[in-house]
Backbone:
C-alpha cells in the first residue's frame, strides 16, 4: 500500500506518520484474514448452552494447578496478547486496539465503549479545553488517545470517518494470508492438542471453538507475517 492510497482513503494519522498507520493496520488486517485460515468447526450456537434468561455463553471450567511445568519462557508476556474490540449494535462507532505485554495499558477488562464515544467527541470538536471537561481530558491522556503539544492537544490514534474508509484501506493492502495460513493451522493443531489434555470427551467441541477463536484473533500469526510479509507491505 502506497502513501497516496492511504491519503485518498480519508484516514486521520497522527502527525501524518505513515509507518504508524501501517503498524496499526497490519495486525488488524492479519487478525481479520486469519479467520478464513482456521479449520472448520462448530459455530457459537452449537457449543453455547441456552440460559434460562435467554442468554448464551460457552460454559467451561478448569482446575488451577499449584505447580506448572516450566515452559522455558515468561507466560505473563503473552497473557494480554491480542486485539480488543468495543462497539454497540446499530452504531457506526467502534474501537479496535491491539494489546501486548509491552503496550503499557490495562487489559480488556478496562476497555469500555465509552472510550470511543469520548474519542469521537474530541475529534468532532465537542470537548472544549475547559474546567468542565478536565476529567475527560485526563482520561484521554491516561489512555494515550491524545497527547499535549505546544499547539494544544492532538489526537494520537488512527481515526477513520466511516466503515467505507476501512474497506478502502483493506482493498489497498496486499492479502498475505497465503503466507501465514500454514502457520495458523499448525498453531491451532498444537494449541488444541494442549488444551484437550485430561479433558472429558463431551467438552471437545466447546474447547475446539475457543481455541479457534484464540488462535485466529489473538495475533500470534502476526509474528510470522512480520517476518515474511511486512517488507512487501512497505514497498506496496
Residues:
Amino acid at each position: 500500500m502506497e502513501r497516496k492510497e492511504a491519503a485518498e482513503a480519508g484516514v486521520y494519522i497522527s502527525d501524518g506518520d505513515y509507518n504508524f498507520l501501517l503498524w496499526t493496520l497490519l495486525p488488524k488486517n492479519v487478525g481479520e484474514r486469519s479467520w478464513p485460515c482456521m479449520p472448520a468447526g462448530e459455530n457459537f450456537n452449537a457449543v453455547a448452552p441456552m440460559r434460562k434468561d435467554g442468554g448464551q455463553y460457552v460454559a467451561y471450567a478448569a482446575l488451577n494447578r499449584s505447580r506448572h511445568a516450566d515452559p522455558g519462557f515468561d507466560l505473563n508476556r503473552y497473557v494480554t496478547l491480542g486485539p480488543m474490540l468495543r462497539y454497540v449494535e446499530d452504531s457506526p462507532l467502534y474501537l479496535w486496539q491491539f494489546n501486548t505485554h509491552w503496550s503499557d495499558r490495562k487489559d480488556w477488562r478496562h476497555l469500555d465503549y465509552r472510550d470511543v464515544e469520548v474519542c469521537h467527541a474530541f475529534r468532532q470538536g465537542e470537548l472544549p479545553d475547559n474546567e468542565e471537561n478536565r476529567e475527560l481530558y485526563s482520561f484521554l491522556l491516561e489512555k494515550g488517545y491524545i497527547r499535549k503539544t505546544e499547539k494544544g492537544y492532538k489526537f494520537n490514534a488512527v481515526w477513520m470517518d466511516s466503515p467505507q474508509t476501512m474497506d478502502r484501506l483493506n482493498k489497498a493492502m496486499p492479502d498475505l494470508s497465503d503466507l501465514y495460513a500454514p502457520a495458523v493451522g499448525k498453531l491451532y493443531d498444537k494449541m488444541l492438542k494442549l488444551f484437550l489434555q485430561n479433558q472429558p470427551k463431551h467438552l471437545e467441541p466447546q474447547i475446539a471453538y475457543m481455541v479457534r477463536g484464540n488462535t485466529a484473533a489473538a495475533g500470534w500469526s502476526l509474528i510470522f507475517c512480520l517476518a515474511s510479509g511486512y517488507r512487501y507491505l512497505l514497498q506496496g
